[in-house]
Amino acid sequence: MIPVLAVGLSGGIGSGKSTVARALASRGATIVDADLIAREVCRPGMPAFDALVAEFGTGILSGDGEVDRKKLASLVFGNREMLDALNAITHPEIGAVLIGRREALDHTGGVGVFDIPLLSADHKKILRLDVVVVVDCPGEVAVSRIMSARSMTREEAEARLAAQISRTERLSLADYVLDNSGTVDRLSREVERLWHWLLQWSR
């Protein structure tokens, strides 16, 4: 059996990480998206759901009884204590699912990409990641993208960036840095270069 090449993919909000993940998927990579898993573990009937309502109240729920991520985000971002409480509830649940997905990919061959915005050294160890790829751009570029794509004010965009790990910390984990400070065409070329690097690395 051929082992999978396990790739950690990280990048701050506004970096274009999700665009890179989609491009890698189109080339045949299997994507494990931590953001999608975060949604799954917060659905009614899941352990994190009851804990979130107990911690933050029913005001975080939408009309259909689901966790309203925008309401929750507006509550916790900019408030370190609340953000820590949110992470304490959701991160263990997300981590357990990620470990299960990693085990399912063992010996499947190919490239498995773990798309994790807050990827850490612990993730690299626990998920047995072979390489870490960081999608990077200057902070000002990220802020402009966030404001445009999410209709946020500058203050809101900067608060989102500040709530994540620092750019320096993220880059310190990188085996490969993909620069996404330029155009869409340039990003396409950078992804193609990354894909060839991954294929060569796995041989």
H/E element sequence: EHEHHHHEHEHHHEH
**Helical segment tally?**
10
Total discrete domains: 1
CATH class category = Alpha Beta
CATH architecture group name? 3-Layer(aba) Sandwich
Global morphology: globular
Distance between the termini: 14 Å
Strand order of the largest sheet: 2-3-1-4-5
The assigned structural class equals: alpha/beta
CATH topology-level fold name: Rossmann fold
Residues in helix, %: 55-70%
Number of beta-strand segments: 5
For the biggest sheet, the summary is:
5 strands, parallel
Poorly predicted regions are none
What name goes with the CATH superfamily? P-loop containing nucleotide triphosphate hydrolases
Quaternary status of these chains?
single chain
The residue-averaged pLDDT reads: 91
Evaluate the radius of gyration: 17 Å
How would the blueprint of this fold be written?
Layout: E1 5-10, H1 17-26, E2 30-33, H2 34-41, H3 47-56, H4 69-76, H5 80-105, E3 111-115, H6 121-126, E4 131-136, H7 139-150, H8 154-163, H9 167-172, E5 176-179, H10 184-202
Parallel strand pairs: 1-3, 1-4, 2-3, 4-5
Helix pairs in contact: 2-5, 3-5, 7-8
